[in-house]
Amino acid sequence: MVKRTSHKDVACGVARPLDAIGDSWSLLIVRDAFEGSRRFGEFQRSLGMAKNILAARLRHLVEHGIFEAVAPEDGGAHLEYQLTEKGRGMFVLLTALRQWGEDYFFEPGEAHVHLVDRKRGQPVRRLELVAQDGRRLTPEDTMVNRDGVD
Q: Is 144 helix (H, G, I), strand (E, B) or coil?
């Protein structure tokens, strides 16, 4: 297997998290955790991935503090994987990815799942980037500030 390049020392808020995320399987595992999966078998059934790959991804996500492995409340023998605060912080990232996917990867009228407000049952409002003064920002309105970067 080819060794992946680490971005842990790069001064970029996009590159560093990619070390923790790793690949698409990891994002799908986190997605499933937000949908209620907690046990290895639940992730495996939902994703249909090989057990050795799932075990490696879960171990990686625990090592990076996205999940914690805990004893189940029911006293069962198998560990449960719970999202940490860091892992729960990925909710907005996954929501942005979901909305982007809905915009560009489905044909008009094609059926797909939607994120809805549990309390009201209504679709979640589109995410948008907003300036301190409330203006909606586009890529042209922003820049990466490299002050203080070696």
A: coil
Q: Residues 126, 92: contact at Cβ < 8 Å? A: no
Q: Which residues of the chain have pLDDT under 70?
A: 1-4, 148-150
**Spatial contact of 20 and 66, defined as CB atoms under 8 Å apart:** yes
Residue 139 DSSP symbol: G
Phi-psi region of 30 (alpha: psi -120 to 50; beta: other; left: phi over 0): alpha
* Helix (H) / strand (E) containing 111: none
For the whole model, what pTM was predicted?
Answer: 0.87
Q: What is the pLDDT of residue 79?
A: 92
Structure tokens at 4: 């992946």
Question: What DSSP element (H or E) covers 26?
Answer: helix 24-34
- CA atoms of 89 and 104, how far apart (whole Å): 24
Q: What is the DSSP string of 36-96?
A: T--BHHHHHHHH---HHHHHHHHHHHHHTTSEEEE--TT--SS-EEEE-HHHHTTHHHHHH
- Cα gap 19→23, rounded to integer Å: 9
